[in-house]
Amino acid sequence: MSDDDHVHREEFEHDPVAHAEARAGMTVGELAEEYGAAGVGAATVHEAVDVYAEMLDEDVTNFFGLAGAMVPTGMRRIVADLIRDGHVDALVTTGANLTHDAIEAIGGKHHHGRAGPPCSHSDESDQRGHDERSGTSMREHDERLRDEEVDRIYNVYLPQEHFALFEGHLREEVFPPLEAEGAVSIRRLTEELGRANAAVNDREGVDEGPGIAAAAYENDVPVYCPAVQDSVLGLQAWMYSQTSEFTLDALADMTTITDQAFDADEAGAMVVGGGVPKNYVLQTMLVSPDAYDYAVQLTMDPPQTGGLSGATLDEARSWGKLEKAARNVSVYADATITLPLVVAAARERVE
């Protein structure tokens, strides 16, 4: 390179990476600030806290998308608390999360398990059902769970009798009041589910709280479940519809959620996981004159496949789902790790 080709610059002093401190007694917010001193994923989490804290302003209409196994893996209370404290204006979730939410509301439990072998439920097992000497394969492990009527969600176990409890709950507490209304919206179904969850939880004195759907019902927050058919809740609704006048209007919710988007002065999207909840949250802005001003995505799906679940929020900007000037960040990590951290740190700033 000749002297003429050399690009001159001033001494480079821009925003140096520091070394994060982790000390005893730190608050979550303080830890998130330390993340901002570092690079790679830590810096991204710090940015997500910044954006989500701005979203929690009372002037921002917040849409919350909840996909994945967030309820059975222990994220239920975080979402319910956000709803109760006025930080969610519309929730879009899966029928599976609503199913597991109701199971806990009426007295069922999810249990710690293993992601794979070794496992046994013999007298030689420890209190979580693990037998380190069994040496079984993953297939044998799951075959044993099948025989014992235990469903596995990675490292979480759910005894199948809880689904029978849930079925009875739907048939006795949820579906009958809706049957006389004819075709009802999915939002109306989730509203009645929340009412029934709260009522049974209180009546039976269940130790666990009434949960997400109940919090939404009690605080007039709509819960949308556009793919309700893809769940035990949807299966039970279909089965009940075969012998009754009960049925669901799949298009009815489109009006109310798009009205919420249309009426928002500022709008924010917190998207946990991908799939239908993510798209349903983001597509609301396609029929609105404006778009999202803020968005945070917590996912583990990579963008390189071209699939929606891993698609960046910057990509959503090209569709008109985000404003050109929107503040947005995508965090690629396990949401059971990032959701509590981002929510706690953001709430520490604003409360």
Task: Tell me about this structure.
This protein is an alpha/beta fold and 351 residues long. 44% of the residues lie in helices and 16% in strands. It contains 13 helices and 11 strands. The protein has helices at residues 28-35, 40-55, 71-84, 95-105, 138-147, 161-179, 186-203, 212-218, 232-241, 253-263, 275-283, 313-318, 335-350; strands spanning 60-66, 90-93, 111-112, 150-153, 156-159, 183-185, 223-224, 247-249, 266-272, 292-299, 322-332. A 6-stranded parallel β-sheet has the order 7-2-1-9-10-11, sandwiched between helices. A 3-stranded antiparallel β-sheet has the order 3-5-4. It has a two-stranded parallel sheet with strand order 6-8. Helix 1 (28-35) packs across helix 2 (40-55) and helix 2 packs across helix 13. The radius of gyration is 23 Å and the shape is globular. The model is unreliable at 119-133 (pLDDT under 50).
Which helices and strands occur, and which strands form pairs?
Layout: H1 28-35, H2 40-55, E1 60-66, H3 71-84, E2 90-93, H4 95-105, E3 111-112, H5 138-147, E4 150-153, E5 156-159, H6 161-179, E6 183-185, H7 186-203, H8 212-218, E7 223-224, H9 232-241, E8 247-249, H10 253-263, E9 266-272, H11 275-283, E10 292-299, H12 313-318, E11 322-332, H13 335-350
Parallel strand pairs: 1-2, 1-9, 2-7, 6-8, 9-10, 10-11
Antiparallel strand pairs: 3-5, 4-5
Helix pairs in contact: 1-2, 1-13, 2-13, 3-8, 3-13, 6-7, 6-9, 7-8
Flag low-confidence runs. 119-133
**Number of helices in the DSSP assignment:** 13
> How is the biggest beta sheet arranged?
6 strands, parallel
Spatial strand arrangement across the major sheet: 7-2-1-9-10-11
Number of strands: 11
Structural class of the helices, strands and pairings?
A: alpha/beta
> What is the first-to-last residue Cα distance?
56 Å
What is the 3D form?
globular
Beta-strand share of residues: 15-25%
Helical content stands at: 40-55%
Rg of Cα set:
23 Å
SSE topology string: HHEHEHEHEEHEHHEHEHEHEHEH
Mean pLDDT: 92
